[in-house]
Amino acid sequence: MEIDFSTYNILIVEDSELNLFVLKEILEREHFTVFSASGAKGAFENLGNNRIDLILMDVVMGEKNGFDLTAELKSMEQYKHIPVLFITNLKSADDVVRGFDSGGVDYVSKPFNKKELLQRIKHQIKLIESGNTIAKQTAQLQEAILNRDRMYAILAHDLRSPISSLKMILNILTMSPESSNTGYADMVNTGNDIAEQLFSVLDNLLKWTKNSLGVLSYMPQEIEFDEMVKGVVETLQPTAKLKNIDIQLTLESSLQIFFDVDIMKSMLRNLLINAVKFSHENSLIRLNLYRDKDDAVVEFIDTGVGMSLDAQRQLQDQIMEEGKITPMREKGKGLGLWVVYHFIQQNGGAFFFESEEHIGSRFGFRVPLLDNPSNH
Predict the structure, then answer these.
(1) Segments forming the whole domain that contains residue 364
(2) Does the record carry Phosphoprotein as a key word (predicted)?
(3) Cα separation of 197 and 182, whole Å?
């Protein structure tokens, strides 16, 4: 790694004019930019006026010794990252330990050897250079991730509208008597199912990326919960029909919540799609909505494939790790449930699930009711 030493600034804190002259001569021949101070006051003046990359610190000085000055610098946020290399006559083990305890990274004994001094200084500069390279690469990676998320958001937004229109057209066709008379009913239902799944994926992706970018708008309003549930179920009936799955609704009426309509619909759609996906043909999904104290509880209960304990642990780890991109780790696996968990947690609710392999699963969430005193 080729390093341009002229871009690095070194501060020498030394009260001996002779030592200071020799050190400056050695370092300037290596093209370092050198600043100097005879004590603590001058050191702080230089630090305040210049970017300092490395400090060569004398230990025995008049007003304040180098160990105490280093400890003071390391206690200050703006200076604690600057490596300090001691130049000292003190050679006892206790002095060496004290130097490291105060925050020093290395030391050179007086009278110093020029080659040893330069080797130790250049070693520290190489560490700084490596750290700067890593920081630069990290910033570039973060920018690349940010640009990727922006691209995801743009793609999902641009595709969501035409897929939504296609979904509505196919949904209307599935309910039209004319389509069943043409013999294309199965094809229309299949097309509707595909459009529904595509819309769900794009919707989840859009919410995830906008949330990651901090640009997701949240506009809560009063919602008649049972009416919303009925509406979501109606749009997904064709998907359930493909597997001849009956959706049994038990909905308590007059339950009002204060939530973003679009996000709530996404959560209900995700849970119902999951229940249909993992249910057997000719089976039943029970969808219950009821009051439990100050909360409204929604649960989707199927008698499908269920999950092993290990699969449940993996799912829980994947969707409940806040601030991480785990939902995108395996081809989008868990993204829909992540959307449910994240927005329920964010808005004072709780997500839950339980499952038994070969028996079925129960997924759902609870959310505060509008008449909950904590919502006023």
Answers:
(1) 220-376
(2) yes
(3) 25
Taking only the tens place, the pLDDT of each residue in 80-127 is 999 999 988 777 778 778 888 898 998 888 888 889 999 999 999 999
Instruction: Based on the fold, state whether residues 142 and 88 are members of the same structural domain.
Output: no
> Same domain for 252 and 352?
yes
For residue 33, what is the domain's CATH number? 3.40.50.2300
Report how many domains make up the chain. Answer: 3
CA distance between the termini of the chain: 63
d(CA 8, CA 288): 68
Q: Quick: pLDDT tens for 41-87.
A: 999 999 999 999 999 999 888 778 889 999 999 999 999 999 999 98
Output the CA angle 321-324-329, nearest 5 degrees.
95
Q: Does any domain span residue 65?
A: yes
CATH of the domain at 179: 1.10.287
**Residue 70 to residues 64, 110, 210, 242: CA-CA distances in angstroms?**
10, 19, 45, 73
Q: Are residues 204 and 167 in the same domain?
A: yes
Sign of torsion over alpha carbons 107, 112, 115, 116? negative
Beta-sheet strands, E only, within 106-227? 106-109, 220-224
pTM of the model: 0.54
Q: What is the dihedral of CA 367, 371, 375, 376, to 10 degrees?
A: 170
The answer to whether position 127 is within a domain reads: no
Residue 197 burial (CB count, 10 A): 15
Q: CA distances (Å), 307 to each of 279, 337, 353, 360, in order? A: 12, 15, 11, 8
